[in-house]
Design a protein that fits this description.
mainly beta, four-stranded mixed sheet, 3 helices, 23 strands, 9% helix, EGF-like domain, FAT3-like protein, EGF, EGF-like_Ca-bd_dom, Sushi_SCR_CCP_dom
């Protein structure tokens, strides 16, 4: 029959502790990193190698502190705080299209995890290409760690625009008036002339110079090459001359108003004008003179 409170054949001391009998009891002589009546508790020091995942340990008074390697945190560096790593995230793309739609291809980002955790990948596009109309579109990719929900995203924009137009040459003795709003989708211009000058031939007054998706102008800006000495001669030569004339470049309010009026009443251009509120603002008309 075993005696209570003494060292038994199977020692009550844990973790390599050495048992010694004392009257009606026993004591455990514990190894360095263990303590307690049965050597059941780890001594709070670096001797127990408490830091995981390559963390370094620093002894404190009856305690320790772990300095964790990159991507780990917690008392013993047991907590994974490393989000997925992102490479090859595309920059914003600006694409010119001569048609109203354009096939755009982009490079997919690459996600990885140095902790070898399983990642769940997602995107708002099934493949790295799509046919886009003119406009702005946001592409998003994401990688999420399944075990803890840490997430990394790649987001970039694709802007599809008509082919840009080369700037028109300023007409001699004249001014060039063009829409200053949303001209990436089309540029529409009229020519005005300084007082006592007119376009030759004069029937080109009020003719629109248009550059659309092709990036090519319908025609070049005509010069105000004909010098008319008398206003009466000018009016006889072309009645609408005074509508498109100006005295000083800094005073072109009348020309801007004519521009807005001509655009809003045009059978085709009025539709473009209706899309944008800026079309009603004379200050949004660009003047080059």
């Amino acid at each position: 029959m075993e005696r209570r409170g003494t060292c038994l054949r199977i020692s009550p001391c844990l973790n390599g502790g050495r048992c010694s009998n004392i009257p009606e009891s026993y004591t455990c002589d514990c190894p360095e990193i263990w303590k307690g009546s049965r050597c059941e508790n780890v001594v709070a020091s670096c001797k127990s190698s408490p830091c995981h995942n390559e963390g370094s340990c620093v002894n404190k008074v009856e305690d320790f502190e772990c300095h964790c390697s990159s991507g780990w945190d917690g008392k013993t560096c047991e907590e994974d705080v490393q989000p997925p790593i992102l490479e090859n995230c595309s920059a914003n793309l600006i694409v010119n299209a001569t048609e109203k739609t354009k096939l755009v291809v982009w490079a997919e980002p690459v996600f990885s995890d140095p902790m070898n955790s399983e990642l769940r990948l997602s995107s708002n596009y099934e493949s790295p290409q799509s046919v886009f109309p003119w406009g702005d579109f946001t592409i998003t990719y994401a990688a999420t760690k399944i075990k803890n929900g840490l997430c990394t995203e790649c987001t970039f924009n694709i802007s599809v625009r008509p082919t840009p137009c080369e700037p028109l040459k300023q007409p001699e003795n004249g001014a060039l008036l063009c829409n200053g709003w949303d001209n990436a989708y089309g540029t529409f211009c009229l020519v005005g002339c300084r007082s006592n000058f007119t376009i030759h031939p004069p029937n080109r007054y009020g003719n629109w110079l248009i550059c659309g998706a092709s990036g090519n102008w319908s025609s070049q800006a005509p010069d105000c090459s004909l010098n008319m000495e008398k206003e009466g001669d000018i009016l006889a030569f072309h009645p609408s001359y005074t509508d498109f004339s100006f005295d000083e470049c800094h005073n072109t309010t009348k020309l801007r108003q004519i521009f807005i009026s001509e655009m809003t009443s045009h059978p085709d251009l009025s539709e473009f004008c209706q899309l944008y509120q800026a079309c009603n603002d004379v200050n949004q008309v660009n003047v080059l003179c």
